[in-house]
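Is zinc ion placement plausible here? Inputs below.
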Amino acid sequence: MLSLEPVKEKYGDYLCRQCLNKEYNVNLVPRDCNHFFFGVCRCCNENRRLITSLTATGKLKMLVK
Ligand SMILES: [Zn+2]
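Reply from A.M.:
I modeled the complex. Tokens:
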């Protein structure tokens, strides 16, 4: 499972899946996300699920672009 600490450091908080996809040019689907909490995304200002960690598949998608 991949920590998204770099994302948090860059944006001051975790981002929603849509913004992660946009920022990292990946295609994460809900099952790629291991943990999340509901909150306002710093990137799109929408109340969404903010992703805090990814599954192995999600991690691979982030690494292999
Ligand atoms: Zn967002």
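Short version: The chain has one domain: 2-63.
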